Amino acid sequence: MKRILTLSLIVLLSTVIFSSCEEELSFLAKMSANIDGESWTTVGRTTIKQGEAFIVTGTTIDGEVIILTINGAAEDTYVLNPISGAAGFGAVYKASIDASIEDTYISTSGELVLSEVDTENSRISGTFSFEAKKLDETINITEGKFEDLKYTAQ
Fold first, then answer.
1. What b-and-e string marks burial along 62-84, b requiring 16 or more CB atoms within 10 Å of the CB?
2. CB 35 within 8 Å of CB 129
3. Nearest-angstrom CA–CA distance, 48 and 154
4. Are 91 and 69 spatial neighbours (Cβ–Cβ below 8 Å)?
5. Is a pLDDT exceeding 50 seen at residue 123?
6. Could you report the per-residue pLDDT of 40-54, keeping only the tens digit for each?
7. Which carries the bigger pLDDT value, residue 135 or residue 6?
8. Between residues 96 and 13, the one the model is more confident about
9. Could you tell me which of 110, 117, 105, 106 has the C-alpha nearest to residue 147?
10. DSSP code per residue over 8-62
11. Residue 71 carries which DSSP code?
């Protein structure tokens, strides 16, 4: 009986291991940046493709959130410049997931490069930087990057 149980366990583990080899591991996805020079790294990421746009949300273990809205779905450089009227992307930063609109920093200028769009595997990668304001405060998000984010189409 002990031998049958051991053999069954080996078969079960082998099935799980070999069936998961075809799928990429989700822990390869990353999103990070510097906020006024301080390191910011996510533990959770959600990426949604809506038509020809992506919405990327990253959350840290402390509940800090960056949301990027990319107004395009192609590998390209997207610029936010209110003077020229360019709005290729938009972003917000919240120091807390529960932050009110008054405590939310809204991007005023910046650049986002969508460097890889893998439609076959539904994954995107890129870099970003932006300046954001709330009332009379300004922060700078620099050296932002997201890698191998799996997206869901809606």
1. eebbbbbbbebbeeeebebeeee
2. no
3. 7
4. yes
5. yes
6. 999 999 999 999 999
7. 135
8. 96
9. 117
10. HHHHHHHHHHHHGGGSPPGGG-EEEEEETTEEEE-SEEEEEEETTEEEEEEE-TT
11. S
Task: Give the 3-state secondary structure of residue 86.
Answer: strand
140: amino acid identity, one letter: N
What is the structure's pLDDT at 82? 74
Phi, psi of 20 (to 5 degrees): -85, -5
Burial class of residue 104 (count of CB atoms within 10 Å of its CB; 0-12, 13-18, 19+): middle
Q: What pLDDT does residue 28 have? A: 75
* Inter-CA distances, 48 with 3, 67, 142, Å: 48, 11, 23
Amino acid (one-letter) located at 72: G
**Residues with Cβ < 8 Å from 90, sequence gap 6 or more?**
68, 69, 71, 80, 106, 107
Question: Which pair of structure tokens corresponds to residue 39?
Answer: 């390191």
pLDDT of residue 151: 97
Neighbouring residues of 117: CB distance < 8 A, sequence distance ≥ 6: 73, 74, 75, 124
